[in-house]
């Protein structure tokens, strides 16, 4: 039960931060972005569990940006193309894929993921009783 609460809490934190960041950036958002943001935040926090040790921050950021872009692409296929909600459209951006993702935003996710990594680790440490994070930039 404690594990379910943990993931619900992390999902909601990530979802609402993503939602409100989008409002600050674009002036509006869509409720589906809470779901997409929550999934992305859970993914970012799971990277340490996948590796069983703290991978270097740059590797975490790279994996996060690829994961977020993948989640955004799949979500875009469902939300924008199948359901025709047209929440976002990157068709006018260079290096886009079906208008759902583009290279520019993958680069932005790389840098924004650092804040998400720190926030996830802080929440897990301070509020969820997990180990204090130990960071490194590269492999030793």
TrEMBL record:
Keywords: Membrane, Transmembrane, Transmembrane helix. The keyword Cytoplasm does not apply. Coiled coil: none annotated. It comes from the Bacteria. Pfam families: ABC_trans_CmpB. The keyword Membrane applies. The chain crosses the membrane at residues 7-25, 31-51, 58-83, 103-123. This is ABC transporter permease.
């Amino acid at each position: 039960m404690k594990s379910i609460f943990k993931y619900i809490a992390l999902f909601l934190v990530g979802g609402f931060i993503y939602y409100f960041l989008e409002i600050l950036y674009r002036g509006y958002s869509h409720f589906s972005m809470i779901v997409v943001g929550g999934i992305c935040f859970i993914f970012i926090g799971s990277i340490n569990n996948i590796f069983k040790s703290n991978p270097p921050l740059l590797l975490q950021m790279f994996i996060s940006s690829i994961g977020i872009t993948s989640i955004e692409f799949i979500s875009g296929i469902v939300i924008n193309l199948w359901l025709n909600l047209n929440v976002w459209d990157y068709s006018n951006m260079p290096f886009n894929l079906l208008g759902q993702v583009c290279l520019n935003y993958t680069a932005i996710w790389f840098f924004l993921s650092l804040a998400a990594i720190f926030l996830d680790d802080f929440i897990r440490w301070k509020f969820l009783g997990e180990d204090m994070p130990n960071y490194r930039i590269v492999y030793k």
